[in-house]
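Q: Convert this sequence to structure tokens.
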Amino acid sequence: MNSNTDCERVRRTLMAALDGEGDPPAGPDRDHLTTCAECRRWQEELHAVTARAQRLSYPAAQADLWPALEGRIREAGQRRRVPRWLVPMGVIVLVWRVLQLFIDFPIPMLHPIGQLAAVAVALWLIAGQLLAIETSAPELQKRGV
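A:
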């Protein structure tokens, strides 16, 4: 009696071998194929479907898109540098933190106000104008502008 796990293992091996990702079934897998009628039928159907798919004709691509995409991918990867304004901002925050640790300000509320101001400036620089309405060229074309 064959178990479902044997059938699943053999079927995975057959699919991998057919896709060129593994070795053809060997030893116990071949023995399983000789004793299991369901797996033999499944193997025949797999080969039939694969043969039909290989006979299909596919239309040729009209244009090679890779050169344009490759350039855009490289540009996107190069643009991920740290913005110049972020470095001085980080230095200011670190200096402020060092001052907090070494100097005891007489007004305790000065500590969180400085941090809040730094966060507000950083968000303003990162986000820009939050309430500005931005449009793109395709959107304007849809509107006829």
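The chain has a mean pLDDT of 78.
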